Amino acid sequence: MDFQGIHDHLRAIEAPGLTGFDEPRKPNPEVKKDPGRAGDPYVIVDAPLLPDFLMVCREDPRLAFEILVDLSAVDPSKDDENLWVVCSLLSLTHKHRLAIKSFLPKESPVMPTSTTVHRAAQWHERECAEMFGITFERHPDPRHMLLPDDWVGYPLRKDYEFPEEYHGISCT
Amino acid sequence: MGLLEKQFEENVLTTKVDWLLNWCRLSSIWPMTFGLACCAIEMMAVGCAHHDIDRFGAGAFRATPRQADLMIVAGTVNFKMAERIRRLYNQMPSPKYVIAMGACATGGGPYYKFGYTVVKGVDRVVPVDVYVAGCPPRPEALLEGLMQLQRKMQASSIVRKPARTA
């Protein structure tokens, strides 16, 4: 199925948490400095319902998204009040893909873990947690992934400030 | 040889203690395998037949700091690794030497500004004797660094200098 077909099907089966979608478009020549939008089309899903949505995508025989290719997060800008959580799904049965975006407020970035559906999400969520400060509730192994255990701050946030020193080693 | 010439029988050479010991040391520098990133590939190339670091007696890469004289820090050093580097350096027997190979080990390299976990130069953790520039350096550059280190070792002295009298 192409994106339109997948989206229509998701609408038809009333997938939980589905709130909308976005598609790439060409720049409008009538509007000044309109950049358009590049990239893939994606569906927008309510963050608290993301695991349920992934479950439906996996179990529905016409979608059959068995593989979670990636789960990552984005801090779009300093002024934006949301973080994005971006997932990509792949179906080997039907050979189609889907991109999913969820928005989380920066003030309390908490969402349920997707490891209950895709165990591959474990490492990805651990990385998102340490880099962006997102809390994944009921994560089975909420340790740091790459950073040292006692690292302060979330480095990939736009408002991150470098530490002065780490264990006596100067950072500047 | 001056005064000492022909004073001894055949097959006896005269030299200085410093020169002899330095020559022994610099002719068999045993480096520690310390590849952290892409510089390690060049370091491996130096160890292979084409460039052959063994010509300088420095081909015996040791997997333990206790048998090594030289630490070639080849690659990006992050804070998690820096503590291990310090510990490994402390485990090396004296006299010990460090070569910072490449831009990252010298001063953070391309990660200088936004690399939040990259140490801005391994000299913040251990004392460095020779810096080798490049990203990554050519094998010849590392060999040149090794020769610089040998020159430096040649100048060192273990003999206590006699106290100056007024």
Write the layout of secondary structure elements.
The complex is a heterodimer of chains A (172) and B (166).
Chain A: H1 3-12, E1 18-22, E2 42-45, H2 50-59, E3 67-74, E4 82-91, E5 96-105, E6 110-112, H3 121-132, E7 135-137, E8 165-166, E9 169-170
Chain B: H1 17-26, E1 31-32, H2 39-47, E2 70-74, H3 79-91, E3 97-101, H4 102-107, E4 130-132, H5 139-154
Parallel strand pairs in B: 1-2, 2-3, 3-4
Low-confidence stretches of chain A: none
Cα distance spanning the termini of chain B: 31 Å
Mean pLDDT across every amino acid position of chain B: 89
For the terminal residues of chain A, how far apart are their CA atoms? Answer: 51 Å
Structure description:
The complex is a heterodimer of chains A (172) and B (166). Chain A has 172 residues and is an alpha/beta fold. Helices cover 19% and strands 27% of the residues of chain A. Chain A has helices at 3-12, 50-59, 121-132; strands at 18-22, 42-45, 67-74, 82-91, 96-105, 110-112, 135-137, 165-166, 169-170. In chain A, the strands form 3 sheets. A 5-stranded mixed sheet of chain A has the order 1-2-5-4-3. In chain A, strands 6-7 form a two-stranded parallel sheet. The model of chain A has no long low-confidence stretch (mean pLDDT 91). By secondary structure, chain B is an alpha/beta fold. Chain B has a single domain, classed as 3-Layer(aba) Sandwich (Rossmann fold), CATH 3.40.50. Chain B has helices spanning 17-26, 39-47, 79-91, 102-107, 139-154, and strands at residues 31-32, 70-74, 97-101, 130-132. In chain B, strands 1-2-3-4 form a 4-stranded parallel sheet. In chain B, helix 2 links the parallel strand 1 (31-32) and strand 2 (70-74). In chain B, helix 1 runs antiparallel to helix 5 (139-154). Chain B is elongated. The mean pLDDT of chain B is 89.
